[in-house]
Design goal:
By secondary structure, the protein is mainly beta. It has a single domain, classed as Metal Binding Protein, Guanine Nucleotide Exchange Factor, Chain A (Beta Complex), CATH 2.170.150.70. The chain has 1 helix and 11 strands.
Amino acid sequence: MRQRSGRCLCGAVQYQIDQEPLAVRVCWCRDCQRLAANGTVNMAVADAGLHIRGTLSEHLATAESGNQMRRRFCPACGSQLFSNSSGRPGFTVVRVGTLDDPSSVKPTMNIWARSAPSWACLDPALERVEQQPAPPPAR
């Protein structure tokens, strides 16, 4: 098992992950595109393995899937760090770009591919799922 760490842009929020990710995916849902102006690479981790230091703000909304989403971000710099879905209790989605070493994980699929813009570069070597995939298996 590899321990991973990350932080927001200004460093006010830092985190440690002491478990392997349950899934790593490139998400092309419209919400992720609005957050990043592109698809986002996200890693699902068990809540028990994520340790956060610092104060977070949050935004609650209903996703296209119908799930309630709680997106958490740094109130100082606005960096999007984490999200949680009512449809997937027990784990947190971490934005891979906030890891200190984002190359320590590799995506295995593109999700919400039907929402990707026509110019998007979806890696054909990755599994393609048009909408929301099944939740990752708990470990």
